[in-house]
Task: structure prediction
Amino acid sequence: MKKLIFTSLLVITALFTKAFAQDCSFYFPTKVGTTVTTTYYDKKGKETSKLYQKVLDYKEGANFQEVKVQNRTETKDSKDVPDSLLIHEFTIRCENGDFQVNWDAYMGNTLSKYQGMEMEVNSENLSIPSKLSEGQTFPDAKIDIIISNQGVKLMTIHTVVKDRKVAGFEKLSTPAGTFDCVKLTSTTQTKMAFIKVSASTAQWMAEGVGVVRTENYDKKGKLESYSEITEIKE
Result:
């Protein structure tokens, strides 16, 4: 009888844990070893870089899911010759029904420009709730990146992501396949010294996959660059 009760408790605990985990819409692969390749292009459609994101580890608890990710960014120069390589690791987490969009994932391609330098990052992660509806809005988020070289402060990049909302739900096809996505739009304001830049972004995300496509527009609404998933390997 004691064994039966203990076994029943284990089953109930497992179902309870699974139910909490399912409340989380996880916008990234969770299978260890999966590698997602994202290709970046300029406004003319010319490839500028590739981002390889590999799942190193996965953890799941009663109210959270978490993956450890390795980012590997390869950029090219004006003659399409591989120019630089940046590798770093970070975690992506969903807790209590909110998926936390790590800034390393959001700005990974931008930060690759400052490889080899010292970076101090103070940020508020962007979050996406599990239950989404068209027209839904989210709070602003911000990040301050202090860049130094050999202890000497060079610049501070201050970025605010605002006007975040759900623009709709769409099926999107890329070289990696066809995905059911939520389309998110936002405005990004960046300040570096005396330079201020404002741009808008449209981003399509799919559960279990991540950011399928991103389009960046200047303040006049003209396409500046875009990226999309071009391969998924498990």
The chain has one domain: 2-233.
